[in-house]
Amino acid sequence: MNPEQNIYKIKIIISLKKLLERGKSLQKELKDNKVVYSYHGVASNALLRKATINDTLNGITSPKATTLISIVEAMEFTMSDFGREFDSILDQEIETYQNENS
Fold this sequence. Notes:
Radius of gyration: 13 Å
CATH architecture: Orthogonal Bundle
Oligomer: single chain
Number of helices: 6
Largest sheet: none
């Protein structure tokens, strides 16, 4: 994987983790929310294996577009929400991720 592809992969991981955390915060405020913001809950809603969610969010694999869309929608976010998170990631966040996961 070339360095640019690696940066994209890291930005995808960070973006998904931020959406997951945002979902957990929202879940506390919503009484009738049926989405569970955990790897298992997202996997269930996305109709994907929990291992797929785990591997994606832990950087083991890069998701295909259809898998990425399924994960984002399973968390009840839009691809626009994902795009905003992706675009807002700072170089420092990427560097921190690389240092913590190397």
